[in-house]
Design brief:
about 80% helix, mainly alpha, MetI-like fold
Length: about 325
């Protein structure tokens, strides 16, 4: 187990280095000049050149990248080119919205996928099982923007139960009820769509578990098909779900970037879109590195968990 963990940790480190290089180089080839943007429309080329020198943008790319990575290793993600504010501090503040939103969306996705996926498999061939599968296929293809708008029309505009936009930025989580209410519709939007995708994997894993010899043997000994599945088949279903969850987390992060725009939430996703438009390279590369690192760390933890609970993987390594 230790050897496997060290190997995966090494791959994680390599993945972060590769991701950081791709992020850095990609941002440098985007059109536009941040120095000219700071200088303003009336700024002269000399003023832009002076700003470029002050920001270090006239240095070789390799030097800029090395300085950035050295700062990251010290826990310093740099400062905004436009405001001078530390990127790490802004990320922490925005994470107060994005992290709870992602956790709530993941909870909704699991509540949708696990029971309905198992039920769809148990009732395969029946009207209810087919209906669950068809609805899941449809919801999985729905864009999160459209889903969010429909939920706003029904629950915010029509019924007036929940707020449609914004987050209590002044009070934040010091008023937990108001803060939580503002995240319910965005979390439902992401969770339902991602849950529909996960439901199909749960259904497939459940059907596969129902065909295993140990489940059929348990059923032959007198257990009902449902009890045999619950007692002997669900652990293998859980392994499959854990594996897919790493991919689902990435989908939830992408969904959060979009949904924060729809619901006017002051989270990392909205900040990222704003900073890309403003060409604030230092902030954007820090934000992208943190989001990428989060996805890679989740994948790393999922691999370790899968290896720890799956005896077949332990035997293989």
């Amino acid at each position: 187990m230790i050897r496997y963990a060290l190997t995966r940790l090494l791959l994680l480190a390599v993945g972060l280095v590769v991701a950081s290089a791709i992020i850095f180089l990609t941002l440098r080839v985007l059109p536009g000049d941040v120095a000219q943007l700071i200088a303003g429309t009336n700024g002269t080329p000399e003023q832009a050149a002076r700003i470029r020198t002050e920001l270090g943008l006239d240095r070789p790319l390799l030097t800029q990248y090395a300085d950035w990575i050295a700062g990251v290793l010290r826990g310093d993600l740099g400062s905004s080119f436009l405001t001078g504010a530390p990127v790490a501090d802004e990320l922490v503040r925005k994470a107060e919205v994005t992290v709870p939103l992602g956790l709530l969306a993941l909870l909704v996705a699991l509540l949708v996928a696990l029971p309905l996926g198992v039920l769809s498999a148990l009732r395969r061939g029946t009207a209810s099982g087919t209906a669950i599968s068809v609805i899941a296929q449809g919801l999985a293809a729905v864009p999160v923007v459209w889903a969010g708008m429909m939920l706003v029309v029904v629950f915010a505009v029509g019924l007036g139960w929940l707020p449609s936009q914004s987050f209590p930025t002044r009070t934040g989580w010091s008023t937990p009820g108001e803060a939580l209410r503002s995240l319910i519709l965005p979390a439902l939007t992401i969770g339902i769509v991602e849950g529909a995708v996960l439901l199909r994997f749960v259904r497939s894993a459940t059907l596969q578990a129902m065909g295993e010899d140990f489940v059929r043997t348990a059923a032959a000994k007198g257990l009902t098909r449902t009890r045999a599945l619950v007692r002997h088949g669900l652990p293998s279903v859980g392994l499959s779900v854990v594996t897919v969850l790493g991919v689902q987390v990435a989908g939830i992060i992408v969904g959060a970037v979009v949904i924060e725009q729809v619901f006017n939430l002051p989270g990392i996703g909205r900040m990222l879109v704003t900073d890309v438009g403003a060409r604030d390279l230092e902030k954007v590369q820090g934000e992208l590195l943190v989001l990428t690192g989060f996805v890679l760390v989740i994948g790393f933890l999922v691999d370790l968990l899968h290896h720890a609970v799956d005896p077949r993987q332990r035997e293989a390594t």
